[in-house]
Amino acid sequence: GGRRNRGSRPRRMSGLVLLKAKVGDVDGGPELLLASRRHAVLGVARVLFAAANERCLRGMDRAALGRGSFFVGAVANSWRVLMQGLASLMFLCARADEYVRQPPSPLVLTAHDKPAAHPQQVHISTVGRNKMRISWVTDDRNTPSVVEYGESRGNYTASATGDQATYKYFFYESGAIHHVTIGPLAPGTTYHYRCGKAGDELTLRTPPASLPLELVVIGDLGQTRWTASTLAHIGGADYDMLLLPGDLSYADTQQPLWDSFGRLVQPLASARPWMVTEGNHEAEALPVVGFAPFVAYNARWRMPHEESGSASNLYYSFDAAGGAAHVVMLGSYAEFEEGSAQRAWLERDLAGVDRRRTPWLLVLLHAPWYNTNQAHQGEGEAMRAAMEALLYEARVDVVFSGHVHAYERFTRIYDNEADGRGPMYITIGDGGNREGLALKYAIIGRSH
User: Fold this and answer.
1) What is the pLDDT of residue 289?
2) How far apart are CA 246 and CA 282, in angstroms?
3) Domain assignment of residue 326, yes or no
4) Domain assignment of residue 416, yes or no
5) Model pTM above 0.90
């Protein structure tokens, strides 16, 4: 338990593709060093935000705002693919489109075999500067929504209560879905906790109070053997928080798959904050029979939307690393046009970011705004037209998306032209889902 020494933390970058953007000005865009696999499966991105460099708080062509480096890593889903070496490249678009793997095989998912009051599907998320939300499910609807916690094993010095709810979908009725907010918590600290006074003791670590901040970014996760491989890679890394830009369980109206997904990710999601936004596979709308969209998603994965002034769980924002990073999670499937609630909220949220104390500004959304893959061409265009200018004016650093089951990275860009003041766009859409990789590109050799 207790606080960790950030300076002594080992780096576990083995098996990662590293895109290293050096600090400083480079004509035409950032200088990129690519340590690549020849056939990379890019289902996971791992990001290290180094400490802010006071000498380059903002600039026309700043490659990064950090002392040291900005890393984006993508883990191959096959252990047999070996690192090919290091290449120093100056280029505008990177992608992996040659990898061939076997079709995703389903996992053998076991039912919950514990007592009805035993917590399952435990996951955590950040709430404000120094609090965490603990979410879990019990089959017993009389289990109390309470979390006991402390810095020593078995010694719970604090407790908190919350709320619970259920939902129905055709003949399916969920268990009790509990949400409890705990805190205040110390940053960079390990806590031991127990849910519902009946569960096993679990352990979480709070994010640090300052940079560096290390993130995992995955999209379109699903629950196949490739998903399990992705999760195994993540489990071997030392990181602070996971960001997921949509398409979690691939339940697609089969509600028991939400339960199996929650059990699948619990070992990781109960230990580090998982911050998610919705994808198309979360919608599950059947208006003919009265089922509104995102019912299961909103019930199970409650994010800090109210705390960030949002009226919807489909879009929100939060600070990390003591405010040195601000992360905006947008909703590709909530209204985003001029005059919409989401666009008005985004404008207010970005206006409240002080870039003098927040050098990193990140955005996540599901459907990519820039995409040369044949899959899902143009699906993010309307949202880009409605919102891109706001991101540009706020000088957003990086935009992550999923949806397309491939990896693609654009240099800093605005309105379809390379622009050193625009964000870098990264598609990271294959965490292992059942639909497989998107390997065909519609545009070859385009200078983005």
Assistant:
1) 80
2) 8
3) yes
4) yes
5) no
The answer to whether residue 373 sits within a structural domain is yes
How far is it, in rounded angstroms, from Cα 178 to Cα 141? 10
How confident is the model at residue 288, as a pLDDT? 82
Is pLDDT above 80 for 224?
A: yes
Q: Mean of the per-residue pLDDT values for the chain?
A: 80
* Domain range enclosing 349: 2-6+13-98+206-428
350-364 per-position pLDDT tens digit: 999 999 999 999 999
Q: Are 130 and 184 in contact (CB under 8 A)?
A: yes
Using 50, 70 and 90 to split pLDDT, how confident is the model at 104? low
**Of 291, 307, 287, the residue nearest 299 (C-alpha):** 291
Half-sphere exposure of 359 (CA within 13 A, CB side): 23
* Mean pLDDT value of segment 2-28: 31
CATH at 81: 3.60.21.10
**For 356-389, how does the pLDDT look when each residue is reduced to its tens digit (9 = 90+)?**
999 999 999 999 999 999 999 999 999 999 999 9
User: Can you give the pLDDT at residue 246?
Assistant: 97
Domain count, the chain: 1
- What separation, in Å, do the N-terminal and C-terminal C-alpha atoms of the chain show? 47
Q: Across 27-41, 202-216, 430-444, which has the greatest mean pLDDT?
A: 202-216
In this structure, is residue 433 part of a structural domain? no
Which of 178, 376, 403, 405 is flagged as catalytic?
Answer: 376
Burial (CB count <10 Å: 0-12, 13-18, 19+), residue 329? buried
Q: Is 376 a catalytic residue?
A: yes
Q: Which tokens is 438 given?
A: 């998107």
